[in-house]
Write a structure and sequence with these properties.
Elements lengths: L1 H6 L5 E3 L8 H9 L4 E4 L5 H14 L4 E6 L8 H17 L19 H10 L3 E5 L5 H9 L3 E6 L2 H10 L3 E5 L5 E2 L14 H11 L4 E4 L5 H9 L4 E4 L1 H4 L8 H7 L7 E4 L7 E4 L2 H6 L12 H15 L22 H12 L1
Parallel strand pairs: 1-9, 2-3, 3-4, 4-5, 5-6, 6-8, 8-9
Antiparallel strand pairs: 7-11, 10-11
Helix pairs in contact: 2-3, 3-5, 4-13, 9-14
Length: 348
């Protein structure tokens, strides 16, 4: 497959770059095993990204995939934020804490992060991918001229065509089954909620660049299925959350290994953007809340992280961002390299 040659890997497997969960140790283990290891740097700054890249390279000389967030910078609405904190107050008090007095934009978008661009151009990972949209033509040109392979997530054909036109080397078809944040470019428009199989097949027929399938793929049978549909690789996130190298906390791991993994829900309540999460106390909080009541991404995430940290201190794990796809019940706990080897065997 030409995509595998472009990425520099042997297996049609990409470990998803899950910010806050994937680690340099995981990425290195996956890449050393012949797949594409990934880190998400959307939740850190340029210095943090360079340290993560260096940590991978200390363990691995294979290709590395780095993901950045391309959301529109948040517009603060003090009234909405104050009302949201009032809504969450009983939950803070339940775990013996008080809500903060204000909220901040905790993540800087790659759209305006010159330092992150400079870091990527200096360190030159083999692959850089974009989630939530596309950066400017100038940033794309700079990365391409540095010899970096570019990928972009798409949740529908329009987004995919925009990515192809912008110069992406391949498009990640993110099906509605996928865990974590929907890559939808504009979260205020109606989401067509296209599943992985349908979206993959549509994009394979409509695009002139390779397609990577993502969403609900947990084993070799799932990988084989999307390859039969024309995808050239599968990106898998939830499958790696239970790996020993993952940064998932004990509560997250416990829920993912339980019958509760059969229940996931799309919610804005945690971060401010639609994301698929294991059903927990926070998702229940968001079920009756209108989208306009939730502060903008990632300002809303500031409140969620503070509540989760306070709750963990009190021994309550039900407020975490326990991102997981609909294939969560199929998760297997093992080291990342062992999982890649297992997936490779299941492909044959």
């Amino acid at each position: 497959m030409r995509l595998l040659e472009t990425l520099g890997i042997d297996l049609p497997i990409i470990q998803a770059p899950m910010a806050g969960v994937s680690t340099p140790a995981m990425a290195a283990a996956v890449s050393n095993a012949g797949a594409l290891g990934s880190i998400g740097v959307g939740a850190t700054n340029a210095d943090g990204a360079r340290k993560m890249i260096a940590a991978v390279r200390e363990r691995c000389k294979c290709p590395l995939h780095v993901n950045v967030f391309c959301h529109q910078p948040a517009e603060s609405d003090p009234a909405v934020e104050a009302a949201w904190l009032d809504y969450l107050r009983p939950e803070f008090e339940r775990v013996g804490a008080q809500p903060p007095t204000d909220l901040k934009e905790i993540y800087r978008s790659f759209l305006v992060d010159d330092a992150m661009l400079a870091a990527l151009l200096a360190d030159r990972p083999r692959v850089v991918s974009f989630h939530f949209g596309l950066p400017s033509t100038e940033r794309i040109r700079a990365l391409r001229e540095a010899g970096i392979v570019l990928l972009a997530s798409a949740t529908n054909p329009d987004e995919a065509r925009a990515g192809e036109k912008a110069g992406m080397h391949a498009i990640i078809a993110q099906g509605y089954e996928a865990g974590g944040h929907r890559g939808i470019f504009n979260p205020e428009v109606q989401d067509d909620c296209i599943g992985t199989f349908a979206l993959t097949r549509m994009l394979v027929r409509q695009l002139n660049v390779p397609v990577i399938a993502a969403g609900g793929i947990m084993d070799g049978a799932g990988i084989t299925a999307v390859l039969r549909l024309g995808a050239q690789a599968a990106q898998m996130g939830t499958a790696f959350v239970s790996c020993s190298e993952s940064d998932a906390d004990p509560g997250y791991r416990q829920v993912l290994a339980s019958d509760a993994a059969q229940h996931t829900i799309i919610t804005r309540a945690i971060s401010g953007r639609p994301a698929r999460c294991l059903s927990n106390r926070f998702t229940q909080l968001g079920m009756s809340v209108a989208p306009q009541k939730v502060p903008a991404y990632p300002i809303s995430y500031d409140a969620a992280k503070r509540l989760h940290n306070a709750a963990k201190t009190a021994g309550e794990w039900g407020y975490g961002a326990q991102w997981a796809g609909q294939g969560a019940p199929l998760a297997r706990a093992m080291p990342a390299a062992e999982l890649v080897a297992t997936l490779a065997r299941e492909l044959t």
